[in-house]
C-alpha cells in the first residue's frame, strides 16, 4: 500500500531525517541547491502551510519510507514536479513517478506536467522518457521535459512551416 504524508504534518524529528536524505551526496548532486541548513529546511516547511502552489510528500510503501515527491508552481492547468528516492533505497523510481502522475493528473487535475533534469542525471531522464515525457527545451546544464494529460509532451523543435497531414 502506498501512502503520502504531507511535509507540513511531520514532526520535527521526521523533518530532520528528511533533511539528511535531501543533503545526502547521492541526492544533493542532482539538486539546484546542493546543501541546505536545518533552519532553512524548517522555515521552508513552515512556508508550505500557506502556499497552495506547492505540495511536498514523503512516500511510504508497505509502511516504509521510500522517497519524496513534490509538486510546485501549481496552477489550474499545469505544475512542475520533482522526486528523489531515500538514500540507499534502490528500484523505487517508478513507484515515485506513479505517485507524481496520479497526484498531478487525478488529484490536481492539471493538463500538463513539467520538470527539469540535469543532463548528467541519466537515470531520471530515462525514467521520465519511459513515462511519456518529451524533451521540450534545454540549456547548458538542464533538459526540460513535459507530459500532456493522456499522452506525451510536445515536440522539442516545432517547425511552423510543416503542415499536418
Q: Which terms summarize this structure?
A:
7-stranded mixed β-sheet, 7 strands, alpha+beta, 165 residues, globular, 30% strand
What is the number of strand segments? 7
Spatial order of the strands forming the largest sheet: 1-2-3-4-5-7-6
Structural class: alpha+beta
The chain-level mean pLDDT equals 90
Rg estimate, integer Å: 17 Å
By DSSP (H or I, 4+ residues per run), the number of helices equals: 5
Helix content, binned percent: 25-40%
- Distance between termini? 46 Å
Shape: globular
- Main sheet characteristics: 7 strands, mixed
Strand content: 25-35%
- Ranges with pLDDT <50 over ≥5 residues? 154-165
Element-level helix/strand string:
EHHHEEEHEHEE
Task: Note down, in words, how this protein is organized.
- By secondary structure, this protein is an alpha+beta fold.
- 31% of the residues lie in helices and 30% in strands.
- It contains five helices and seven strands, in the order E-H-H-H-E-E-E-H-E-H-E-E.
- A seven-stranded mixed β-sheet has the order 1-2-3-4-5-7-6, covered by helices on one side.
- Strand 2 and strand 3 form a beta hairpin.
- The longest helix has 15 residues, at 93-107.
- The chain is globular, with a radius of gyration of 17 Å.
- 22% of the residues are buried.
Amino acid at each position: 500500500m502506498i501512502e503520502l504524508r504531507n511535509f507540513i504534518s511531520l514532526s520535527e524529528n521526521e523533518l530532520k531525517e528528511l533533511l539528511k536524505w535531501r543533503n545526502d551526496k547521492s541526492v544533493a548532486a542532482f539538486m539546484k541547491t546542493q546543501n541546505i541548513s536545518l533552519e532553512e529546511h524548517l522555515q521552508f516547511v513552515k512556508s508550505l502551510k500557506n502556499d497552495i502552489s506547492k505540495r511536498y510528500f514523503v512516500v511510504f510503501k508497505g509502511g516504509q519510507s521510500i522517497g519524496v515527491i513534490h509538486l510546485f508552481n501549481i496552477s489550474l492547468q499545469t505544475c512542475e514536479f520533482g522526486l528523489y528516492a531515500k538514500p540507499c533505497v534502490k528500484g523505487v523510481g517508478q513507484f515515485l513517478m506513479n505517485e507524481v502522475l496520479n497526484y498531478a493528473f487525478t488529484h490536481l487535475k492539471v493538463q500538463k506536467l513539467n520538470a527539469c533534469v540535469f543532463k548528467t542525471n541519466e537515470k531520471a531522464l530515462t525514467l521520465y522518457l519511459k513515462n511519456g515525457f518529451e524533451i521540450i527545451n534545454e540549456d547548458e546544464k538542464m533538459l526540460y521535459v513535459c507530459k500532456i494529460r493522456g499522452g506525451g509532451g510536445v515536440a522539442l523543435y516545432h517547425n511552423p512551416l510543416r503542415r499536418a497531414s
